[in-house]
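Dear colleagues,

I hope this message finds you well. In preparation for our joint manuscript, I am sending the Cupin domain protein (Gimesia chilikensis) sequence together with its predicted structure, so that both groups work from identical material. I would be grateful if you could confirm receipt.
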Amino acid sequence: MSAEPKVHVKVLRSDELEVLQEGKPTKATMLEVTLDPRAGSPPHRHPGAVSGYVAEGTFEFQVGDGPLQTFKAGDTFFEPAMILHRVGRNPDPEKRARIIVTMVHPADAKQLMIPEPPEKNRP
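The corresponding structure tokens are as follows:
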């Protein structure tokens, strides 16, 4: 029996910013997110705005009530802070996807990915 496809997250850097958000200190964190073939993340939110770059593969993405979008290597995307990230997955059955994301978030954020409770995720 093969293992469940996984999402791998690596922090590339995290820097304190001199910019305040609602009077509070902020950080910019850059992450490398690698999705195994057919891997995806459950619905969630991020405490800060996310800018992403698809470095390799294909990435399906849906936030809020927006349409499901498909991004290929070289494409970019944006995700506002605290919006529901409904779909984030690699649809390819054979190749991994690799995404570089930068998030500007409150410096005291306990989690950079806040899982959505299952009862709130129903249509």
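For the figure legend, we might mention the following. The radius of gyration is 15 Å. The chain has one domain: 7-110.

With kind regards,
E.M.
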